[in-house]
Write a structure and sequence with these properties.
single chain; mainly alpha; 0% strand; elongated
């Protein structure tokens, strides 16, 4: 069952990071907001909210398989892992999208490592 969990978590990662982002992929880039025809300083930090929403969505998605396959896992543990992953995902995506310090290869490597570390933690707690 734990191998199934890992594979479903990887699938959830791919689905959320590549297929489900939609406009968030653009909106999490500060430069996208600055290029808007009617840009106002009011939008100065809106990219941060898009980053946060995507990071939370991704973190929930990779935990959905655990919530289904491991129904007795502690809500406290799930929430702690969710918060940890959302923070890491936010930082990594900001480094790629806005600070331009890392590329897609590094971004995806880190996210896949997040999935694996999360899976290992879940395996130890199950």
């Amino acid at each position: 069952m734990m191998v199934k969990l890992l594979l479903l978590m990887i699938l959830a990662h791919i689905a959320d990071d590549f297929y489900l982002q939609g406009n968030l992929a653009k909106m999490k880039q500060k430069v996208w907001w600055e290029k808007l025809f009617e840009y106002k300083s009011l939008y100065k930090y809106d990219y941060k909210m898009a980053l946060l929403i995507h990071s939370m969505s991704w973190s929930i998605m990779i935990l959905v398989p655990a919530m289904i396959l491991l129904p007795t896992i502690s809500s406290y543990i799930l929430f702690s892992i969710f918060i940890f992953n959302a923070i890491i995902h936010y930082i990594v995506d900001n480094e790629k999208c806005n600070k331009l310090r890392i590329n897609l290869m590094a971004d995806q490597t880190i996210h896949l490592l997040q999935v694996i570390v999360t899976w290992v933690l879940l395996c130890q707690m199950w």
